[in-house]
Write a structure and sequence with these properties.
Layout: E1 3-8, H1 12-23, E2 28-34, H2 37-47, E3 51-55, H3 63-73, E4 78-83, H4 89-96, E5 102-104, H5 109-120, H6 128-137, H7 158-168, H8 173-180, H9 184-198, H10 203-212
Parallel strand pairs: 1-2, 1-3, 3-4, 4-5
Helix pairs in contact: 2-3, 6-10, 7-9, 7-10, 8-9
């Protein structure tokens, strides 16, 4: 199966570089290129790519707004944010907007290719630990009011809530399994149910959700 990719970057040379890397792979195909957020949304609606490589810092409609619109219009499309450094508030905003991860622009070609394939398969690129570190750094962007507990949490069983809490702490499935004395496969099953019940795309979105609902508070 070929993975269709939409390239979004306001720098033509960056698009050329990404194009060269992607077109060298038999399982990847560049469906189109966009130089701004508005064009990115239009092409995503038209081409329905599997993955969008999205630069966040662009004039006009930036990558965050474009990501929100693409996720809303094309729920099967995954967005991979491109940023200049890992603790970037734009990367954080991209995750909140629904991106499945972010990648540093100077990543090695093999890292870029692996990230695209991972996202296309439905997994998140950014580890929960990196996500948590990013959320801690950008905590001032999180809701600060102490309102009622989010009603969506009531959909979860006690065990599922426990699993979500451990995921939000940045732990892997293996670490959670050891902590809770469960089989790793059982943890994976519980996490899958959590994602379905909360209508989340992947475990990175689960970490963001846990912070936004104040299930986990920044330290």
């Amino acid at each position: 199966m070929t993975i269709g990719v939409l390239l979004v970057d306001d720098q033509p040379l960056m698009r050329v570089a990404f194009n060269l890397v992607l077109e060298s792979q038999p399982d990847l195909a560049v469906l189109g290129e966009a130089g701004d957020g508005t064009e990115a949304v239009r092409l995503a609606r038209q081409l329905r790519p599997d993955v969008v490589l999205m630069d966040v810092r662009m004039p006009g409609k930036d990558g965050i707004e474009a990501t929100e619109e693409i996720i809303a219009a094309c729920p099967d499309t995954r967005v991979l944010i491109l940023t200049t450094f890992d603790l970037d508030e734009y990367a954080f905003a991209g995750l909140r907007a629904g991106a499945s991860g972010f990648l540093i622009k100077n990543a090695l070609p093999e890292e870029l290719l692996a990230a695209i394939r991972t996202v296309a398969a439905g997994d998140a690129v950014v580890s929960p630990r990196v996500t948590r570190r990013l959320l801690e750094t950008c905590a001032h962007q999180l809701p600060t009011h102490d309102g009622p507990v989010d009603s969506r949490l009531e959909r979860l069983t006690a065990r599922e809530l426990e699993i979500l809490t451990e995921v939000a702490k940045g732990k892997s499935n293996a670490e959670i399994a050891a902590e809770l004395h469960l089989a790793e496969a059982t943890v994976k099953t519980h996490l899958s149910r959590v994602l379905v019940k909360l209508e989340l795309r992947d475990r990175v979105q689960a970490v963001v959700f846990a912070y936004e609902t104040r299930l986990i508070k920044p330290s």
